[in-house]
Each structure stands twice: as structure tokens, then as C-alpha cells.
UniProtKB/TrEMBL annotation:
Name of the protein this chain belongs to: Response regulator transcription factor
Organism annotation: Streptomyces gilvifuscus
InterPro entries from the UniProt entry: CheY-like_superfamily, OmpR/PhoB-type_DNA-bd, Sig_transdc_resp-reg_C-effctor, Sig_transdc_resp-reg_receiver, WalR-like, WH-like_DNA-bd_sf
Keyword annotations from UniProtKB, A to Z: DNA-binding, Phosphoprotein, Transcription, Transcription regulation
PANTHER family: DNA-BINDING DUAL TRANSCRIPTIONAL REGULATOR OMPR, REGULATOR OF RPOS
Residue ranges of domain Response regulatory in the record: 4-121
DNA-binding region location: 133-232
DNA-binding as UniProt keyword: yes
Upper taxonomic lineage: Bacteria, Bacillati, Actinomycetota, Actinomycetes, Kitasatosporales
């Protein structure tokens, strides 16, 4: 079972944990951190499932659920799994009345969350006919999480485990600007001793491998004062 999951969670570390768990299950994931961005991503990407934190800024999870279950085409029958730190019965009942398909109360285990996601996807049938190819493609790159392989313009690229995880995170969400901290989190388990500044070294090494001119990158771009993004790869 493979699906595209939209994760709307304002806690960046929690969102990254969910994203990595989804990738390990063979899904693809898009992560946003507020309700307005969640609605925008739902309209643009039409995901197979939304994992929705109720305590989102800008538009809270209840507001997002109202829109997804209203007349807005963003909803389109997309199942919603709510995450809530509030276990009050009224909050849970309101979320379910608004059309959420399931809910989990924080704290929860990633394994239990993945099991709930599998159940919701199976019950909704949204995983039928979704992308079976696990390869993530962006900016002339093909990143295969199952074979742990990278190709650039069709040519194989040798990457360290940490470099691979950084490319996978960025290729999954091209044009998204990642902070050094977010990219460092993507390497956890492979590069435990690294600091945020080590991300600069990984990016420098990756540019040597995937850029025609590492000094004038067109794929792995620096966003000054913020971090890095993977762009279209066109000069």
C-alpha cells in the first residue's frame, strides 16, 4: 500500500518524525505547519490522506476539517486522521462530527500511528491506484528509497547515508526551503554526531556530485538567512 499523505503539524520535530515514518512505510509525504498551508496543499496536491493536528496556527484543525468536508473542492473525499493533545470528549466528538475519519490523542507511538493510517487508507480505498513507483523524482534527480539509489540526469550518484536522506527529504518537497535544523533531523540515525553546520558540508559534497558547476549551483540552492532548497535544475 502506497499513498501520498499530507501532514499538517506545527511541531517541526513531531512533523519530521511522522514524515520519516511514512517514508519508511513506502508512502510519500508533504509537511506543512499551519492550517492555511494545509488547505493550499490539499487543493494543489489532492493527497490520499491528511494527518491533521487540531492545534494549528492561522487556521486550526477544526477550521481545516470544516473546509475539507464542506463544498470546497479541496476536500474531494480525502480522509482525515486527527491528532489532538486535548483528550476532552467534546473536542474529539466535534472533530468526528466535522467529518474526521479517525483520531489519535498525543502522545502516541509512531507504530500505532502508521497502523491507524493503514486502516484509514484501506477503509477509504484511497490507496488503490495511487503511485506504486517508490522513486521520488525532482530537478533531474531520481531518488529510490527502497534501493537506496540516486540518479542525476540518468547517471548513478554515490551518496553517503546522510547525503541520501537529505536528498530524499528535499526531492520529496521540491522548492520547499529547509532550515539546517530540518535537514539535520533528516540524517538522524545516520549521522548522530553532526551539528547543524555539518549540513553545509553535506550540501557542498552533494553539489560536487549533482551540479555541472558546484560554484554556480542550479539544483541545490542557498536561501540566505534560512537554509537550502532543491530547485528545477535549469540554468
Amino acid at each position: 500500500m502506497c499513498a501520498h499523505v499530507l501532514v499538517a503539524e506545527d511541531d517541526e520535530m513531531q512533523a519530521e518524525l511522522i514524515r520519516r515514518s511514512l517514508l519508511a512505510e513506502g508512502h510519500t509525504a508533504t509537511v506543512v505547519h499551519d492550517g492555511a498551508a494545509a488547505l493550499d496543499a490539499a487543493r494543489r496536491l489532492r493527497p490520499d490522506l491528511v494527518v491533521l493536528d487540531l492545534m494549528l496556527p492561522v487556521v486550526d484543525g477544526f477550521g481545516v476539517c470544516r473546509v475539507l468536508r464542506g463544498s470546497d473542492p479541496a476536500g474531494d473525499g480525502i480522509p482525515v486522521l486527527m491528532l489532538t493533545a486535548r483528550s476532552e470528549e467534546d473536542d474529539v466528538l466535534l472533530g468526528l462530527e466535522l467529518g474526521a475519519d479517525d483520531y489519535m490523542t498525543k502522545p502516541y507511538s509512531p507504530r500505532e500511528l502508521m497502523a491507524r493510517i493503514r486502516t484509514v487508507l484501506r477503509r477509504s480505498g484511497r490507496a488503490v491506484g495511487v503511485r506504486e513507483d517508490p522513486v521520488v523524482r525532482a530537478a533531474g534527480l531520481a531518488v529510490d528509497p527502497e534501493r537506496h539509489e540516486v540518479r542525476c540526469d540518468g547517471e548513478p550518484v554515490e551518496c553517503t547515508p546522510a547525503e541520501f536522506q537529505i536528498l530524499l527529504a528535499m526531492a520529496t518537497e521540491p522548492e520547499r526551503v529547509f532550515t539546517r535544523r530540518q535537514l539535520l533531523q533528516a540524517t538522524r540515525g545516520f549521522d548522530r554526531s553532526s551539528t547543524e553546520r555539518a549540513v553545509d558540508v553535506h550540501i557542498m559534497n552533494l553539489r560536487k556530485k549533482i551540479e555541472a558547476d558546484p560554484r554556480r549551483p542550479v539544483r541545490l540552492l542557498t536561501v540566505f538567512g534560512v537554509g537550502y532548497k532543491l530547485s528545477g535544475g535549469r540554468p
